[in-house]
Amino acid sequence: MIKLKSLAIFVISLTFLILTSCAAKPPLILQLDNEQVVTPLSQVDIESSLGQTVRWGGTIIETINKKDYSQIIILAYPLDNEARPINFERDGTRRFIAKFDYFIEPNTYSKDREITIIGKLDRIEQSKVGEFDYEFPIITVEKHLLWPIRSNYDPYYNDNYYYWNPYYYPVHHNLGHHGHHYSH
């Protein structure tokens, strides 16, 4: 009876270990310390969160290089379990600016690329979106990840099947009708 109980505990523990090891986690560069809480931009109170570390992401709207620094204007989206932006509905929650202390190549960090930022929520900056006055949260970037471009590949589509029908062309049939060969 004790062996059966020990075996059951072992099997349950092993199952738990296997399942938790397969769980999606952010890439190492985007992982935060355990005490840091990640709040999506759409739910954060900017004023009371100034100075805190945040992990936000979205798609790039524009990359701007200044004399001593660069800025990326980002349309924020919620992040998945790997900290990659989820932008299926294409309705971003709001905008923020990621400030880098170095040059950012605009051709690499181009419009609609997905990016995740970790950094300090530094301040709020008044600017405009078109003619509209807008308050941009400014993040001083500590770490970031520019995600690879998603492919439109459908993993369920398979055209590698073999099918041959003798009535499909370019099969040549000798029908013996007046010595003519017909091609379909």
UniProtKB/TrEMBL annotation:
<dbReference type="Pfam" id="PF03843">
    <property type="entry name" value="Slp"/>
</dbReference>
<dbReference type="GO" id="GO:0019867">
    <property type="term" value="C:outer membrane"/>
</dbReference>
<dbReference type="InterPro" id="IPR004658">
    <property type="entry name" value="OMP_Slp"/>
</dbReference>
<protein>
    <recommendedName>
        <fullName>Starvation lipoprotein Slp paralog</fullName>
    </recommendedName>
</protein>
